[in-house]
Specification:
The protein is an alpha/beta fold and 260 residues long. It contains 8 helices and 4 strands, in the order αβαβααβαβααα. The structure holds zinc ion and manganese (II) ion. The site of zinc ion (ZN) has 5 residues, from α2.
Length: 260
């Protein structure tokens, strides 16, 4: 299970004394951020949290870092990137709540003496509220002259273009529309096949949206399955390729960023 994957790097599975000792090496601390959000009839609603945690765990392993328990709720689902808020089960936070959680966690890490943090985001809608949490935390820390360097990344930005082109044969619909579709389904098949119900995979459909958002949300343009782009070509093999190539790029980028 995901809960014990790379358990030796999980801060929540270690004693405080072990954590204190390992902090002396100035490890990079990884914090996954996801959501509880409908992902079609075939995937679990924790998909974004599971995938961001899997990426964070592998990057932490590659860089000898540590991993925090993830943020398993996220900002409100939007029609064009997650199907929107109208599905039962989608359970979202106000932006200020998400921002405050990250701000608090970063402040606590600084108190422990952690100086390098990577927030690995797996839910499109989280991006700017995580950014705000980082910004407010760094403003707090500047007052007490504590130093911290924080990277916020969306894991999918590391997936090599050549890998995407090979899987979509030139028809990549973009990350937003890939909700519960080929990429996420493939990676879940590679990581947690027992949580994927391929019999429930809907017929392929693609969300059809105008260039704007409407509130209150109407659900217009969202396929009734909640899957925003074709998913039937998903496979565990594609998932393994996606995960390996994405983690390799992420680790390389973070090595450059932190000069290690
Ligand atoms: Zn997702
Ligand atoms: Mn999402």
């Amino acid at each position: 299970m995901i809960e014990t994957e790379y358990a030796h790097r999980r801060i929540d599975l270690m004693s405080w004394t072990t954590y204190r000792d390992r902090l002396k090496d100035d490890p990079i601390i990884f914090l996954p951020a996801g959501a509880l959000e409908q992902h079609g009839p075939h995937l679990p609603m924790g998909c974004d949290a599971i995938l961001s945690a899997a990426m964070a765990a592998r990057a932490a392993e590659a860089l000898d870092g540590l991993q925090l328990p993830g943020l398993r709720y996220g900002y409100k689902s939007q029609s064009r990137s997650g199907g929107g808020q109208l599905f039962p089960g989608t359970t979202s936070l106000d932006g200020a709540t998400l921002t405050a959680m990250l701000r608090d966690i970063l402040r606590e890490l600084a108190r422990h003496g952690a100086r390098r943090v990577v927030v690995v985001n797996g839910h499109v809608e989280n991006q700017w509220f995580l950014t705000e949490g980082i910004d407010l935390a760094l403003r707090d820390l500047a007052r007490s002259q504590e130093e911290m360097r924080v990277v916020r990344c969306e894991y999918w930005n590391y997936t090599p273009q050549a890998v995407l082109e090979s899987m979509f044969e030139g028809a990549f619909p973009g990350v937003d529309l890939e909700h519960a579709a080929l990429l996420e389904t493939s990676m879940m098949l590679a990581l947690q096949p027992h949580l994927v119900d391929l019999d429930a995979l809907p017929e392929d459909a693609t969300g059809a949206f105008p260039g704007h958002d409407v509130y209150p949300q109407t659900g217009e343009g969202v396929p009734s399955s909640g899957v925003l782009a074709p998913a039937r070509a998903a496979s565990a093999e594609k998932g393994r390729t996606l995960i390996e190539s994405t983690v390799a790029e992420m680790a390389a980028a973070l090595r450059r960023e932190f000069a290690i």
